[in-house]
# Entry
Amino acid sequence: MPTTPPPRPLLFALLVAAACAGLAPSAGLGAETKKPGAKKARAAVPFRLPAAVRDAPDGASFAVAPIDRTARDSVHAAAARIDAILAERHARDGVAAPPLLSDPQFLRRAYLDLGGRIPTHDEASAFLASTDPDKRVALVDSLLESPDWVSRFYNVWADTLRLTERPQKNLWSEAYLDWVKRSIAANRPYDEWVHEMLTADGKLWENPAVGYQLRDQGMPLPYIDNTVRVFLGTQIGCAQCHNHPFDAWTQHQFYELAAFTAGTRSGTGGKPEKPLRKEMRKGARADTTDATAKNVRALIAASRKRAHENGTKVNNAFTQFLQANGTVVNFRDRELKLPHDYQYDDAKPEEGVASHVLWGEVPEEARSLDGRAQFAAWVTARDNPQFARTIANRMWKLCFGVGLVEPIDDFRPDNPPSNPELMDHLAAEMLRLDFDLREFVRIVVSTEAWQRRAVPYDPTTGEAFSFAAPSLRRQSAEQLWDSILTLVAHDPWAYERPTGEAFAAAVNLDLSRKNPGLDAAHAAFERYEDSQSPRKTRRQTMQTYGYKGQLLARASELPTPLPLGHFLRQFGQGDRETIDGNRTVATVPQILAMFNGPITHAMLERGSTVVDELAEHDPAQAVDVIFLSILSRLPDEEDRKLALEEITSAADVSTGCGNLIWALLNTREFLFIQ
# Structure
């Protein structure tokens, strides 16, 4: 039977816009009926967008380590080797390579994958107009040394490391989040900063890397499970309670590994983790009470006494401030015992466990160190194959959308890589690069395979992905937010989360020596409340950078976790309670958010980048400006015809342009990374 062909993307979007006219923000650009191209238009309404994001930035947001441009030849040689490995596999399997990306497609993919956003109108225009034969190479290099890369890569790690500002009421992790961001900006070697996270001592804002160990405070066994999943790509969690039903790991092996870090202490004043089923020896806490713990307890008791005398409620925020200042990570080797209900023949319940790694050996140079240092040395060792393989697989998935091993944290004998030769090569490359993740990504995106048209892939089919090109993916929640923000804010970096130094200056209270007294402690608390407390800062930032309840800032700078109704959560940002919890599943609320959400209204407000760009061009150029701003390409003949029909048939040009912008924003071409 004959069928009606599906409408073209733009035509379909315009039809939807007409059908949903009650939802679409069609009041016109800048909420006034002015024509694009007018240099000076009378303001019919005051600016609704905050001045902070309407003003052009006055310089770089923060310093980022530069790319070594002298290494381009070696980058291209390394990329060619990857292409050769893929070509051999494709020839054997009869896989045809998709066509290479056009310049507009390459431009958009590079910005989204490496910068986490679409390019601006000016960035797109400059790239497409350039005749430099090396402009693609230059674009990749410039993006990888930009704050955009830091933001993009931070969002990836925030999902993996479950970064949140308040893991618990008395854990204030702002300095740790900033430390992760700055480590990315400095392009620190991956093995170096992982080792630091696993061995750091001190208070959160004095040594922010302790935030990793504190993320699972009070849960020593889940800490081991999560660490092995993230950094070694192996799921051993089932073995906490019983021998693993689908893998070789036993409960005894799990406890042997956990014995390395059993002595981690992270309670107030350095108390040990809460014993789990009496794993630690009785009386283990007796020697851990120090001046910090005593001072915290004394100040809390004095605060409660004063509240009782005054007939007022105890200030819980002050109590949490004291506990946060008393939370210190340190380590002392302690014996770990099997649980009381252990039921296997290889040991007895509550029997002490000697530390032992799951495979290989603890590096010789670390064997004289404490258990935690031995564990960190083993995890990050160059001869621990799973460390390099896991991070190589994670970075490959970042670029191609699918890992060579899926799920990416489930390496096991009966779940081998889809391309074993490529997996081995990528792990070797990671070692050759000394765990320089940015350089690794630079090589991967320099391959011909990455620069080919995306192909659909359904993992539920059970078929291995060929990697002839990246998989077709919808933008992540963070990419989508930051792309729309690009259409709104002249300065998307106007607001940044506080630096670790600024937070430390506001919150630090030294309790390690003598009791400062209740009045002095209260004074320190008030200084913190006035400058860095979430209650105060969020109200102030919303007044300065907010629009209709939305903080107009990069996704990496927003509070975390965000409330369920926020745009980012609606589009799949995780709650930061599970590892890699982001999702890209389509839902009805997402459609409504794109149709009529505050952020899409902000795009059409007077003073937004796209509205101002239109005002700087002749009305005849409006269609080109809109297509370049949103889709990073010029319209083809049919696109131009449909777009002009929409603009000329609207009540006025401004409303027509607004409808076109809104329609393009809701096309698959915008939402997906082609």
In short: The chain has 30 helices and nine strands.
